[in-house]
Amino acid sequence: MIENDPPTVWEEAIKANNKSKMCKDKPLPRLLQWVEVKLLRVKDPIRTPAIRPWALWSIIQIQDHGSFTALQALWKTRQWRFPSHSSKPYSWWEPTKNPLSHRKGFNLVQLNWFSSLIEDSSDFDEEVEDCESKEVEGSDGDSSKNVDSFGHVASRDPVGFYRELKSIETGVKRTRKDWDTLVEIFQSFARSGWASDQSLAIYIGALFFPTAVQKFRSFFIKRCPNDVAKYLVSVGPSEESERILFPIFAEFCLEKFPNEIKLFRDIVHSADLTKPHTWFPFARAMKRKIVYHCGPTNSGKTHNALQRFMEAKKGIYCGPLRLLAMEIFDKVNSLGVYCSLLTGQEKKTVPFANHVACTVEMVSTDEVYEVAVLDEIQMMADPCRGYAWTRALLGLKADEVHLCGDPSVLEIVRKICAETGDELVENHYQRFKPLVVEAKTLLGDLRNVRPGDCVVAFSRREIFEVKLAIEKYTKHRCCIIYGALPPETRRQQANLFNDQDNEYDVLVASDAVGMGLNLNIRRVVFYTLSKYNGDRIVPVPGTQVKQIAGRAGRRGSCYPEGLTTTLQLDDLNYLIECLKQPFDEVKKVGLFPFFEQIELFAGQFSDVTFCQLLDKLRNNCRVDGSYFLCRHDHIKKVATMLEKVLGLSLQDRFNFCFAPVNIRDPKAMFHLRKFAQSYSENLPVCIQMGMPKGSARNDTELLDLETKHQILSMYLWLSFHFKRETFPYATKAASMATDIAELLGKSIMNSNWKPETRQATKPRNPKKGKGYKRPLSLVKAFQKIHSRSENNLATLTERLIAVGYGVSLEELAKRFSFGVAGVVWDLVGL
C-alpha cells in the first residue's frame, strides 16, 4: 500500500513530470497515461485496486494544471463510474456533482485512450504495458492500406479464428494510432444496441454485456494478428466492424462465462412472458367464438352483447369500473335475470343466479360460461391496467366471448385469435345520431351554459371552481362527478342530474364521465383540452376526447342528438381535429405476470426486497412483439413503503401492493401500512377510524371524507383477498362506507367553497406568534454564509443580516431602546 497520502503523491508526480519532456507534443493523453502508470507502480508492485482512488484523486487535480477535457467528456457521455470493489463514493469525490461544469470545449477524440481509466485496473495495467512496448514499431501510414486487400478477414470462420487467437502468444506489436483506433472500435462495440441485443441470444444480459466486452477487448487486442487489426482499423467504428467482432465475441463468452450464462438463462426462463396464450391450456382446449362489437359510443354495441349475455344459461359480464358492474347488476336483475355482483370491495350473491357482473380484475378463469362479455376492450392498451383485459381475453373459458369497444385494438385481436385458434366474428356499428360540433363556443363565459350541459374539466380544483362560478352567476344548479368520489355518490349525482323534476340541470365532471354512466347530456362542453398526466401538462389524447364527447345525445335519453363544443375558442380546432381523425391502431397490449410466475422468478435470487425483485423482473423479462409489460410504479411505491414491515410472505406483499390505495394520499398510505403491520403480527386488523360528525362544511373536510371512504374501501378489498377472520370488521367497514358516501353526496350538493389541494406531505405545525424559538447553530449559520459567493465581499455582519441571522444596529436600538455604541450584532436566533 502507498504510504504517502494522495496530495504528497501528487506533488511528487508533478515535480517528476516537470523534469520530463513527455508532455510537449500530446500533453493530455500522455500525462494521464504517465500519472496512471506511475501511481499504480509507486511502492506497490502488485498494483491492487485499492490504489485506484488515489489515482483518480490525482487525475482530478489536473484541472488546476491544464485542460481537463477528457474527464469532462467522460462526464458528458455518462461513462464515469467507481471501481467495483467499493459501493460507496469516496469522501473527496462526489459522483453526483459535476466539478467541471464551468469548463467547456471538451473533445471526444481525446477520450480514446482515457476511457480505459474507468475499467478494471488489472486488465488496464497489462494493456498499458503492452502499449508502451508496441508503440515504437510501425508507422501511422500503415493503417491506410486499401480495405480490399484485407477482404479475406471478413470471411474467416469465427470458431476457427477464435481458436487461432487462443494459440497466439501475447505481445503483438502495433502503432499508437492503430491502438487508439482499436480502443475506439471496442468502445463503439460496447455501446452498440445491435450487439447488446444479439448477445441476449447467448444469454449475455444487458447488465453483464459491458463487462464481457471489456474482458474480450483485453483478450483480442493482445493476440489479434496484424492483418486483422489493420482491416479493423481501416473500417473503423462501424456496423461492419461490429459484425466481424460479434461472432468471435460470442465464442469468447461461451467459453469464458459459463456460470454467468447459466445464471442468466435460468433468470430469463423464469421471467419468460412470451406466448401468454399458452398460460391457459383449458381455454386453448375449447373452440371459442370471439365476437367483436366494434363501434363508437352510442352505437348500440354493448346493448347487443348484453342481450346475448341475458339469453345464455350462464354468463359473466366484465366491466372496467365498479360503477359499471353495479349498473349492469341492477339492470339485469330488473329484467328478471338473476345476477350476482363481484367487485374488489363488494360481493352480492343472488340465490339461484347463474350470471355475474364483475370488474375485469375479478374475473375467474376457472369457471366455465356459455357467454362472456368484455366491455371497453380497448383498455387492453392501458399502460397500467391493460394486463387484466389481456388475461380475460386469453383465459376466459366461455363458448362465446363478446368484446365491446372501439376499432383501435381490432387488428391485434385478430392476431391473438390467429395464435389461439379461436373463431373471430366482427360486428361493426355506427353511431345512431351523428355528433355535431357547435362552432359557437361559450366564448370563455360560463354564463352561456344551458340545461343539459356537461362541463368537462380535468382536475378536481377546476371542477369545483366551475361549479362555484356557474351557481354564482346563473340560476343553474350543478351536480359533480369525478374519480375520487365513491361509486354510490357518483350514481346519486347522476340520478339527480337525469331527473327532470329538480333544479339540478348542469353536470360538471372529470374524464370519469367517459364510461360507466347513462346520462341525459345534451351538450358536452370542454372547459379545457389539456391535463396533467402525473409528469407535465399535455393535450388530452384524441381517443379520450372522442369517448367523452360521445356521451352527448344517448339513445333513449331526452336528448337523442348530441352536441359538443369548448369553453374557449382557441380549443375548438383541436376538438374538431380529434373528432375527425380515425382511431389510432394499437400495436401492443398490456401484460403482467401472475403471482406464481413472480414466485418462480424470485427463486433465482436471495436476499432481495420485493421492490428490487420487480426491478429485476422489468430488466430481464421477455415479451412477444404484441405485448408490453404494464407499468408498476404504483406497486413499487407500496412495496417500498412495506419494506419495513417484517413477517410478510412474498404472496402477502404481492396482495398488499395491489390494494386500491391513492399513493399520493399520505393518510391512506399510513393506514395501509398499519393494516399490513397488524396482519404481519397475526393480530386482528382494526379500522382505527371514527365516523365523521356530519357533512363537510369546507373543502378540507370534504377531502377528509373522500380519504376515509377510500380507507374503508381498501379495508374491504383486503378482507376479500386475505382470510376473513384477519379482517373481522368488514361488515362495520361496509356500513361506515355507505354512511360516508351519503355524507359526501350531501356535502357536494351544499358545497359553495373554493377548492383545496390534497396535501402531498404531512402539514407542518403552524408557527406560534410568541414563545420560545429554538436557537440555530452558529456553525451552520457560518457555513451557510460562506457558501454564498455573491456575499463574499461583504462584512460578516452584513452577511448575517442578508441571510436573516441578524438585524441592523438601528433596528436593535428601536427594539430595545438603547444606544448603538459598542453593539456589534444581534444574537437572537443564533
Automatic annotation (TrEMBL):
The keyword ATP-binding applies. The lineage of its organism: Eukaryota, Viridiplantae, Streptophyta, Embryophyta, Tracheophyta. GO terms for molecular function: ATP binding; hydrolase activity; RNA helicase activity. It catalyses: ATP + H2O = ADP + phosphate + H(+). Gene3D superfamilies: 1.20.272.40, 1.20.58.1080, P-loop containing nucleotide triphosphate hydrolases (3.40.50.300). It comes from Coptis chinensis. Homodimer; in free form. Component of the mitochondrial degradosome (mtEXO) complex which is a heteropentamer containing 2 copies of SUPV3L1 and 3 copies of PNPT1. Residues 438-594 form the Helicase C-terminal domain. InterPro entries: DExH18_N, DEXQc_SUV3, Helicase_ATP-bd, Helicase_C-like, P-loop_NTPase, RNA-DNA_Helicase, SUV3_C, Suv3_C_1. It is found in: Mitochondrion matrix, Mitochondrion nucleoid; Nucleus. This is RNA helicase.
